[in-house]
Amino acid sequence: MRAVQSAENFQNKMAMEGVPGSLGTSVGFSLRIGQTLFSSASLLFMSLGVEFYSYSAFCYLVTTMGLVIPWSCTLAVLDGYSVVVKCPVRQPGILFIIAAGDWVLSVLTLAAACSTASVVDLLFQTSSSFCTPKCCSRYQLSAAMAFLTWFLSLASALLNLWLLPSS
Amino acid sequence: MRAVQSAENFQNKMAMEGVPGSLGTSVGFSLRIGQTLFSSASLLFMSLGVEFYSYSAFCYLVTTMGLVIPWSCTLAVLDGYSVVVKCPVRQPGILFIIAAGDWVLSVLTLAAACSTASVVDLLFQTSSSFCTPKCCSRYQLSAAMAFLTWFLSLASALLNLWLLPSS
């Protein structure tokens, strides 16, 4: 009986305070900040001073990062506000939209990162006329940053999915 | 009170019979058969009579499909057996392993499909010397089959994840 009660207490505590990393917690805020930083870095490495628009995989990466950055920024602001006023968002509708958005963006980010990485690898192998060493290393860095964005995005998506049934 | 009872009945019924598409149901069996067929088709289009080993993205696709085929075959046999004897597997340990395996393979399949698609697109755009029309269409078909495998694999993974907390 006591075990059941303590399990219930634990569940209520988790539901009230939120799983670490989910919406409205300080770990969640750090995850969003990380996503914003890595996706911005990926976008900058890909688009500044490099002719990315001749390859469709690179255009796709730029488009995806252009979606991830405003999404992560908005949720970082929301998380920061929730942490400061200590009142996390717990409306099931909003949680569902955020969880679904996280999943979709996580899949898109993984697809973009894999496409970029495979195209860079092919350009690197084929010949140096398509891609100078300076360009190639920037493309590689951009793909690496996209993979890091995906890791953090997946973590957010999993933790918000965990929170969904308890709301 | 009646609403709570009927919700509980529904939940018990779902836990006993399984969500359609999860482990041990006929929809789950169809999903596994579909995964096996599409992944075999992807592997055959890529490997028979085409020099796939000169591109690392294509080697990665072949490796991933080599993992997906035995996994889907084994689970198709398990599902078929469960449907025939009407006794689905409900041990939490086994369910957890199957759900985790489904997720990992689903991510790997998406990565392989995206890499292959982007490399095929690049080869197609660059010049016809790298890839004759016959080869290119086979690569494209292989990538399309890999995407279909990913769709079915994601469906299995989501439905098994749904089943996990109720076991």
Share in helix of chain A: over 70%
What is the percentage of strand-forming residues of chain A?
A: under 5%
Q: For the residues shown, what is the average pLDDT of chain A?
A: 83
Largest interface: A-B, 19 and 19 residues
Distance between the termini of chain A: 25 Å
| Count of beta strands of chain A | 0
Structural class of chain A: mainly alpha
User: What's the structural domain tally of chain A?
Assistant: 1
Largest sheet of chain A: none
- Please state the oligomeric state of the protein chains shown: homodimer
The shape of chain A is elongated
Radius of gyration of chain A: 19 Å
Query: Order of SSEs of chain A, N→C?
Result: HHHHH
Count, helices of chain A: 5
What are the segments of chain A in which pLDDT stays under 50 over at least 5 consecutive residues? Answer: none
Main location (chains A, B): membrane
Domain Casparian strip membrane protein (chains A, B): 23-152
Family (chains A, B): Belongs to the Casparian strip membrane proteins (CASP) family.
Keywords (chains A, B): Cell membrane, Membrane, Transmembrane, Transmembrane helix
Overview of the structural elements:
2 copies of one chain form a homodimer. Chain A has 167 residues and is mainly alpha-helical. Chain A has one domain. Chain A contains 5 helices and no strands. In chain A, helix 2 packs antiparallel against helix 3. The longest helix of chain A has 35 residues. The relative contact order of chain A is 0.18. At the A-B interface, helix 3 and helix 4 of A face helix 3 and helix 4 of B.
